[in-house]
């Protein structure tokens, strides 16, 4: 079992060490933050956009956040005498802590119902929580280079945080994600991800959740939309990337991005916390494999956004919701990125210059040879 030890940083932020299964108990000294930190800022605000009926977080204090610091000042490397970092311990496996420059929180609470807003000028405190997940004490490298055991520990951390954040007052959606690559705005090189706990359902999650709820209702509560789509993709086969015992991955029929992979569990589960032990074990292997394949497509690492869609916490959307991963990259050639311009950025209307079938074919070609021995028959490319 992964070992969890919780503590609080000097300014009151929560920090949790998730140590790999089988490691020795943590020295209590590694739980103490000896820095003098200024008090935490009050939450920013969320403003209601009456045109689109979306909430927008306004967080001006984030302008002063750390931006690509040199390695010897990295805030998520383990603490040394020269660099008293955010992580008090001299070593760790995986660590999760509250972001010092959050766009949401630290206060939590219930937002006024958006449905009640008809006009201009509504705002509320930016309730919620933003956490940082450091995947490794090593400053360089990437998630794809983690051992399977370490990836499993990260999954344990995601699941535990999903469970804990879902229980906070007013939280409507928990979103674990990773931005990888300076090309897409990463502000720290150290391999890490984030978890946002929103006090509202995000616009994209709302669209997906209502499509999922409509399908579930039409089927009389017998089939999720995700299961229906996965079944169709498996029958067709031309866009399948990987099929394992508990998870399958494919390039979606109507992919928006030059590189886009959806990874779906075969069992109907709302979130990462609902995955059982064997599903989590397999996820570690399968997720690492997908990330490695992305990096084998070109001579240099591929920037990506890894986004976990979990069922929103609204009771009416819970039964129809299905956990899945959307792994996307704007990379369309070795030296070209797709920019979101007029049609995409203004209208949300995507134009994809690659065909999903050709992308899937390329992603099958770069499968790990070793996979053939470690994953079930179906996963072999
Ligand atoms: Zn670092």
TrEMBL record:
Entry annotation: catalytic residues: 192 (tele-ump-histidine intermediate)
Species: Arthrobacter cupressi
Gene Ontology biological process: galactose catabolic process via UDP-galactose, Leloir pathway
Region (Disordered) residue spans: 21-40
Domain Galactose-1-phosphate uridyl transferase C-terminal: 224-367
GO cellular component terms, A-Z: cytoplasm
NCBIfam families in alphabetical order: galT_1
UniProt enzyme class: transferase
Coiled-coil segments: none
Keywords attached to this entry: Carbohydrate metabolism, Galactose metabolism, Metal-binding, Nucleotidyltransferase, Transferase, Zinc
Pfam family, one: GalP_UDP_transf
Basic and acidic residues compositional bias, start-end: 29-40
PROSITE patterns to which the protein is assigned, alphabetical: GAL_P_UDP_TRANSF_I
Swiss-Prot/TrEMBL cofactor(s): Zn(2+)
The protein, known as: Galactose-1-phosphate uridylyltransferase
Family under the similarity heading: Belongs to the galactose-1-phosphate uridylyltransferase type 1 family.
Enzyme Commission number(s) from the entry: 2.7.7.12
Catalytic activity: alpha-D-galactose 1-phosphate + UDP-alpha-D-glucose = alpha-D-glucose 1-phosphate + UDP-alpha-D-galactose
Amino-acid positions noted as binding Zn(2+) in the UniProt annotation, renumbered to this chain: 74, 77, 139, 190
Binding note for cofactor: Binds 1 zinc ion per subunit.
Biological pathway: Carbohydrate metabolism; galactose metabolism
Origin: domain of life: Bacteria
